[in-house]
Design a protein that fits this description.
The chain is of the alpha+beta class and 507 residues long. The chain has 5 domains: 62 residues; 47 residues, no CATH class; 171 residues, Nucleotidyltransferase, domain 5; 67 residues, no CATH class; 102 residues, no CATH class. Helix content is 43%, strand content 14%. The strands form 4 sheets. It has a 5-stranded mixed beta sheet with strand order 3-2-1-4-7. α18 packs across α19. The N and C termini lie far apart (105 Å). Belongs to the transposase IS21/IS408/IS1162 family. This is Transposase of ISCARN95, IS21 family, ORFA. It holds the Pfam family Mu-transpos_C_2.
């Protein structure tokens, strides 16, 4: 007779609190001073024995021990269930051991079959014989595990190809490809290829907590970075990094990596490759053979199990694959433009002064306000250039705008004619005068630091040398050149030039 792990009096109290008092497993565990797992065990044994509280209450400890803990003598001629198939079926969403037991009994109604308790015990013994990664029960279409193999493949130019591996949890259907590095872009582009390979999207993608993808490698709740979250939104899935120090979270990935190292990379060890593309061409046929190779202890293969279980449960792919995007916090300047990589893009002018978010891809720049897109531009790499949408501009310098060209020129005139001329030229130097606002404001603000006479002298000097830029005036003042220059014998007068717009243009 097996020795009970806790005394029968405590077991009976567990059943009383559950069957009569209707407490939760957590409450029972706290009340008696045992673990929730022990509570679950004995409540399950009572359920398997068909015991309710009146039956437990009326039974003495010896009877209760026999009903709960003593295994009956099972006949040897019971029909044996297909535990391998059962293990595969349990990966289907909504599948339970109880349903499989009902089907097992129905299929063999005229023969001796196992009771539910023995049926479960036999399955548990079978599952314990499987490898750790196979023993875990993953639901169909639920998780795609991704990781990089430790070893790399040498290229003839001295570089190395890194091997990305992905495996579905339920079927172990495996994908592998080579990349030049292990950056965030390599991770995400490889995952895009993996999703295309399996032809669908799982509910979750589980990386091994890599620094390239993680904004916060918290031990309990690792947090993905903004680009990874954007990737997940595009595919309608979630990226859930494996927890550090929890090997059970990544057993499937580790197993897949080991298989790829032994089954694919080992077979390529004698070949020479000049590029990552050549490595991928060599991987493709071996990947097909790997997925079609029969399992050792389970029925079918990765490919057949994928087609039967995982594929029907996957979410559909979006119409377009994900394009890598980077995010940057930007502030809308007075000219209703934001600066992204030294180029300025317009946004609706009411957003002046607000802090927005730029989503940057190789082809486009999107500006987001509280998660909503307010502007979209083709990406332009011209340093110092402007990309402006007319609809973003205030029509005819709207009256409610705080700054206008006329106001800026008038401010310059209050300091001196040379300052006014430089302001005018800064405004004329842009297709839209608003683009020169920041330079004008920076120029005029120099009067606070250096005084109006020095600013007027510096502007006069910069006009004489023909270099009308804010930075030129700033450098003249910083170096004191305005003070060392010989005084002009006459007041500077703006030349009459057909291509220059004077202050009257902005009236």
């Amino acid at each position: 007779m097996p020795v009970p792990r806790i005394i029968m009096r405590k077991i009976k109290e567990v059943l009383r609190l559950k069957l009569d008092a209707k407490l939760s497993h957590r409450q029972i565990a706290a009340a008696i001073g045992i673990s929730k797992g022990v509570v679950t065990k004995y409540v399950g044994l009572a359920a398997a024995a068909g015991l309710d509280w009146p039956a437990v209450q009326s039974a003495d400890e010896a009877t209760l021990e026999r009903l709960l803990l003593v295994a009956p003598e099972w006949p040897r001629d019971h029909v044996q269930p297909d535990y391998g198939r059962m293990h595969q079926e349990l990966r289907r969403k909504g599948m339970t051991v109880m349903l499989l037991w009902d089907e097992y009994r129905a299929d063999h109604a005229d023969k001796q079959t196992y009771g539910y308790s023995q049926f479960c015990d036999n399955y548990r013994r079978f599952a314990r014989q499987l490898k750790r990664s196979m023993r875990q029960t993953h639901r169909a279409g639920e998780k795609l595990f991704i990781d990089f193999a430790g070893p790399t493949i040498a290229l003839t130019d001295g570089n190395r190809a890194h091997i990305f591996v992905a495996a579905l949890g339920a079927s172990s259907y495996t994908f592998a490809c080579a990349t030049p590095r292990e950056t965030m872009t390599d991770w995400l582009e490889s995952t895009v290829r993996a999703l295309s390979f399996i032809g669908g999207v799982p509910q979750m993608i589980v990386p091994d907590n890599p620094k390239a993808l993680i904004a916060d490698a918290n031990r309990y709740e690792p947090r993905s970075n903004d680009t990874v979250l954007d990737f997940a939104r595009h595919y309608g899935t979630s990226v859930l990094p494996a927890r550090p120090y929890h090997p059970q979270d990544k057993a499937k990935a580790e197993s897949a990596v080991q298989i790829v190292e032994r089954w694919i990379m080992a077979r390529l060890r004698h070949q020479q490759f000049t590029s990552v593309d050549e490595v991928n061409q060599a991987i493709a046929p071996l990947l097909t053979r790997l997925n079609e190779k029969p399992f050792q202890k389970l029925p079918g293969s990765r490919a057949s199990t994928f087609a039967e279980i995982d594929a029907p449960a996957l979410l559909p792919l979006p119409l377009q694959p994900y394009e890598i995007a980077h995010f940057k916090t930007v502030k809308v300047h007075i000219d209703y433009h934001v600066e992204v990589e030294r180029h300025r893009y317009s946004v609706p002018h009411p957003l002046v002064g607000q802090v927005l978010e730029a989503r940057i891809t190789t082809a486009a720049v999107e500006i987001l306000h509280r998660g909503n897109r307010v502007a979209s531009h083709a990406r332009n790499n011209q340093v110092g250039g402007f990309t402006t949408i007319a609809a973003h501009m205030p029509a005819a310098h709207r009256a409610h705008m705080e700054w206008t060209p006329q106001r800026l020129i008038h401010w310059g005139q209050s300091i001196g004619p040379a300052v006014a001329e430089v302001v005018t030229r800064l405004l004329n130097g842009n297709k839209h005068p608003e683009h020169g606002y920041r330079a004008c404001l920076g120029l005029l603000s120099l009067a606070k630091r250096y005084g109006k006479p020095r600013l007027e002298a510096a502007c006069m000097l910069t006009l004489q040398i023909g270099a009308c830029q804010y930075r030129h005036v700033r450098d003249i003042l910083a170096n004191g050149r305005d003070q060392s220059a010989p005084p002009s014998t006459e007041e500077w007068v703006s030349p009459n030039h057909i291509h220059l717009r004077g202050p009257g243009y902005y009236q």
